[in-house]
# Entry
Amino acid sequence: MEQRIVRAPRAGMIGDVHVRAGQVVSAGEAILSLLGPTPSASLIAMLPGHYRPLLKPGMPLRLELAGYRYAYEVMTIDSVGDEVIGPQGARRYLGQEIADSVNLPGPVVVVRAKLPALTFMTQENAYRFHDGMHGRAEVRVRSENLLVTLVPALRWLYRSNNG
# Structure
């Protein structure tokens, strides 16, 4: 009977439950998410790998949640992965619960950020974040003067005047 008991490795609150009553589970399989004594939510973003040299902790990241138009969250990047990984490696990193629902067209870099709260606001209501929610993460890695964007030939003049 003792072998059928599941014990948490630490004290905390239960977040999301990934199994149903009576379901057979294997050793090492994730059955729930365990929130710490002071719960916080975090974000894992898979950004295009070619931006890795431009990304660093402390940069602002903007998240738009899928299915909630205009529900934006702005947070700060806590960590940036050291290496660029392929889609298969990224799916292994995410785990089988989430991997099948993610479309990765090419190499990515893993970025982590702490969400500002356990909930997010829409125009009507507040909702709780849940494991596996999807969205679009954006990080500004470059900026350019609008005039230079419209007339690229001015780029050399703009750079020489701005050092």
Observations:
- The helical segments are 87-94, 96-99, 146-150, 155-161.
- Residues 87-94 form the longest helix (8 residues).
